[in-house]
Amino acid sequence: MPISLRIASDKEKMIKEQAKLSGKTKTKFILEAIDDKLGLSGDREQFIRSFAGWLTSDEADELRCSLNVFEKVNEEDWK
Fold first, then answer.
1. In 3-state terms, what secondary structure has residue 68?
2. For residue 32, which of 17, 46, 18 has the smallest C-alpha distance?
3. What is the rounded distance in angstroms from the CA atom of residue 34 to the CA atom of residue 40?
4. Among 20, 32, 38, 78, which residue's CB has the most CB atoms within a 10 Å radius?
5. Contact 63, 55 (CB under 8 A)
6. Distance in angstroms (rounded) separating the CA atoms of residues 52 and 61
7. What is the pLDDT of residue 15?
8. Residues near 48 by Cβ (< 8 Å), separated by ≥ 6?
9. How far is 69 from 77, CA to CA, in rounded Å?
10. Would you state the torsion angle of the CA atoms of residues 6, 9, 12, 13, taken in this order, to the nearest 10 degrees?
11. Three-class SS string for 17-53?
């Protein structure tokens, strides 16, 4: 659904700059801000914590074990 907004020029400039810095279009940046304000977005850890609440204890343990790979840093990757 198309929506038209009137935004002060200083705010539009800030939106353009932040969108560019994050590698997003203005539209994507604004839509993410709306989702965030509505509580429809969250960081990865929050998502996993809320999702894991629906898992059995065994499933949660398996998920936790599977995610351990993301906690390890391979020093060779940084050379």
1. helix
2. 18
3. 8
4. 32
5. yes
6. 9
7. 95
8. 63, 67
9. 14
10. 170
11. HHHHHCCCCHHHHHHHHHHHHCCCCCCHHHHHHHHHC
Residue 43 has what pLDDT? 67
Place of tokens 């993301």: 70
**For residue 17, which amino acid is it?**
E
Find the length of the chain.
Answer: 79
Write the CA distances from 20 to 3, 31, 34, integer angstroms.
22, 15, 18
pLDDT at 57: 78
Structure tokens at 69: 């790979």
The residues near 60 (Cβ < 8 Å, ≥ 6 apart) are 52
Residue with tokens 């009137």: 6
